[in-house]
Design a protein that fits this description.
It contains four helices and five strands, in the order E-H-E-H-E-E-H-E-H. The protein has a five-stranded parallel β-sheet. It is an alpha/beta fold. It has one domain: Alpha-Beta Barrel (TIM Barrel). The protein is about 30% helix and about 15% strand.
Length: about 140
């Protein structure tokens, strides 16, 4: 039914879910919102989770902002992570190739122009095909 759950509100919310709802920590993928180069300490806050989702920091919105994480901020990543933030079919390949990300997350990057929240099937298909092609050529497995 549910393989993994993305947690956008950080370690405190993750701990509460584990305690109150009985979620196993290894099934939770917390979001690390990046606004400076990522240090080991940033990653250790989520030491019980097997995967992080790395997204650009925004003071108001937790995601879907279209902001990209500067790839130079991710040089010290030592944990498996998915890259999010400003990814579109036009830039996802170069963003993944410039980092150690093992996959990508997309939201606003595949929306119909001028219609926030509404996904463009063609853009979504192109995004998936690009990531799948990259996965085959790099062999993320």
């Amino acid at each position: 039914l549910l393989d993994y759950l993305q947690i956008a509100d950080g370690a405190g919310y993750q701990d509460a879910l584990c305690r109150m709802a009985g979620f196993r920590r290894e099934l939770l993928w917390p979001v690390l919102r990046v606004r400076r180069p990522v240090a080991l300490a940033d990653q250790l806050r989520f030491c019980g989770s097997p995967m992080l989702l790395v997204d650009a920091y925004d003071p108001v919105r937790p995601g879907g902002t279209g902001r990209q994480v500067p790839t130079e901020f991710l040089g010290e990543m030592r944990r498996p992570f998915l890259l999010a933030g400003g990814l579109r079919p036009e830039n996802v390949a170069s963003a993944l190739q410039a980092t150690a990300a093992i996959g990508a997350d997309v939201a606003s990057g595949v929306e119909v122009p001028g219609q926030p929240g509404r996904k463009d099937p063609g853009a979504l298909r192109a995004f998936i095909e690009i990531v799948r092609g990259l996965k085959r050529s790099i062999n993320f497995d």
